Every structure is written in C-alpha cells, then in structure tokens.
Amino acid sequence: MVERSTVRIRRLSNDRIEEARFGRWLNNAKVKLVDMERTIGEQMRARVAGLHVLAIQDTSELNYQAHAGRTRGLGTVGNGRDAGLFVHPVLAVEAESGACLGLVGAQAYARHETADKHRRALPIESKESMRWLEGAQTAKRYLDTARHVTVVADRESDIYEEWERLPEAGFDLLTRACRDRALAGGGYLYAWSDKLPVAERFTLDLPERPGKRSARTATLELRYGAVAVKRPRNGTHPGAAPAITLRMVDVREVDAPAGEDPVHWRLLTTHQVEDTAKALEIVLWYRRRWTIEQLFRTLKTQGLDIESSQLESADALQRLAFVALVAATHILQLLGVRDGVLVRPIGDTFSAQQVSVLIALQPSLEGRTAASKNPHPPDTLAWAAWFIARLGGWDGYPKSKPAGPITFARGYARFATICEGVALQQKIC
User: Fold this and answer.
1) Which residues pair with 52 in a beta bridge?
2) φ/ψ (deg, to 5) at 150
3) How many structural domains are present in the chain?
4) What is the pLDDT of residues 309-333, one digit of tens each?
5) Does 253 map to a domain?
6) Are residue 81 and residue 215 in the same domain, yes or no?
C-alpha cells in the first residue's frame, strides 16, 4: 500500500495481471480481518517487551459517498445520509519517548444500526460502542510482554463496563470524561471536579486542529483527586459493581486567546494519582493521543488518500482499510524518527533483506560533502528514514525543511520498486 503512495488499485499494481490479482485478494471472503490482526499483533510482542506502552485507540470515518451507488454494503457516516465505513485502530506508542511502535490491531466496519430510543437500555454487547472494549482486549492480548499497558482514548470510550471489567495489575485505562456521572456519595462528577483545589499552573504547546483550534502555548491549571462513580441505571449488567473508584485529572486553560475555546480536559484514569508529578504525567500520556490523529491524516489527506478508492464491495474496502492502516503506521514511524531524536531499531519497519538494499543504495543517495551524508547510525530507523526521504525527493541537507508524509510515501514507492527488481533479479539468477 505505502509502496505506491495510494490505495487506488490501478496505481498499486505494476500491470493488469497484478491489478487483477490484488483485486481478487481484496474480494476473497477467506481473507479475514481477524487473521490479519493476529499477524500484526503477534509481531508486536518482541517490540514492546519491557516497555510502558500507550495503546491509543480511536474511530474515524471513511466517506465513499462520491461513488456509493456502485459500492455494495456500505453503511451510514457523517451526517447520517452519506455512505461509507468506520475504522477503529489500536496504535502502540512508547509512553516515555512518544515513539510509534506499530499497529496492534484494527476494526473496519459498516454502520447499519438505526436510532433507537431504547438503545441506552441495551447491554454493551449489543451496542456499537463494544468496539472500545474489544480494542482494549486486543491490546491486552498482544502487548502482554510489555512492562505496563495504558489504554488511552477520547470521550467515546468513557464507558462504565470498560472501567469495571478491564483494569488489572499492569493494565490501566486513561479516558477523557464524556458524561457528568452520578457519584456514590451524592452529587455529580463535574461539580465535584470544579471544587478541586489548583495544584499546579503550567504551560503546554497545543498543535493546530484545523477548523477547531489554532496552534498556541496554553497556560493550564491542574487539579486532581479520587472519586467514586455510581453504576448507571440503564444498560449495565445487574451484577456489575455498584460503584468504581477512579482518579480525575482536571486540566483547564486560563486566559485563552480571544475567539478561541479554552482547553478543558477532565481525564479519568485507573492509575493511582497521589501527587502533582503523577498528575502531570497523566496529562503527557493523554497528549500522546494526538499521534492517532496524525495516523488518520496520513491515511486520508496527507498520504494514502484512502477515500479515493473505488472498490465495489464494502468487504473489500474493509480489507483495504486494514492494509492501508498498516502502511500509514509505517509512514508515521518514519516521520517520528526523521530528526534522530527518537531512537528506534531499524527492524521496527524494515526486514533484513530491505536493509541490504538500503546499504546498496547508500552511495547513490549520499553526496560527497559531510553535509550531504546520512548522519544517523546504520542500525536505527532514522538511518533508513533519511534514505527513504531522499528517494521521495528530499535534498538531504540539514537546513532544508524536513520531509513530510507525502515525501515519505513517494520515497517508499520508489524503494519498493527497487526491492521488486532486486528480488526478480535474484530469482532469475
């Protein structure tokens, strides 16, 4: 997928024969998403061993309304009238460094359920929101060699059953609060958090969110405390615990610029938060959730342009979405190490055979001066990223603008073509 910088089948293939072969694979009912997930999940075990891993999960829509009339099995997205799919990946990120470690798993599905006033009374197993519990279980299954796993998610994941069922020793949850829950001692969550004393004032660089927020350095107030939330009256299994004790880390922007909505995060977690240092650490971990937003941008507008695919079956599009998520993750890994600050082994993304091709390409990609040579150690992913960027059209000079996702996608396309040629030559010889 990443090897052709696109998800359009005709551009993915070298010729009509390859195009037909790839199309048959995508339409093959025997190709199961669960098997694809197992393959990538098992690869993660050695990669995360001994680390504290943030398993970041989120949902994004893929809108195919432009050609919905010729694609079977699509569901509703967006305004409820457009046609498309949803993807729900789980991305592994190292807590300490923020390095992207890889894709743990993903769901791709069409939404066919209709509004039901009685939906809140249904058990979680009968709701689409069950995907959050399933995503966390995927992280628990494939990240079992990690020293600690923290599942990080936004407000949709604020689900009582998730808080009650999933945490265990070495496995915690961190989610932005979505609802003003009733408390075991009376009162409600938001009013309780409003009364918490300010423990710290600090600054945080906020990235731009197009259409929602400008990039800025925000001044924030930090509050935290332990709170017992009551079991909801609707939908929850009657055997569920009547109350759960969670920790709240409340972060509020002060003196926000005119015209900007102030940042306000009410973060709920199963981690013990007993001092200000730990509360600030919780904020840092939640901030790393933005990594998955970059993954979605790479998947759609800044790299693979997945919504341009014109496959005629929702099942085929679901398989394509999974493969594209793996490809987008590779691009994200290259982006994360391009400056050499984050150090990850080259084996995160490249096989031994691919590394040998990069070594063979090195003389043609480096210049004669010190400024035009790869500055990174050859066993690091940054070393490989430098060459992939060069293949994508970057000039390689330190003072130049760093390569972006499109450049890396283009470079990987060229690299894949070279690898195919090498493999063919070895087969012939």
Assistant:
1) 148
2) -120, 120
3) 3
4) 878 888 889 999 998 899 899 999 9
5) yes
6) no
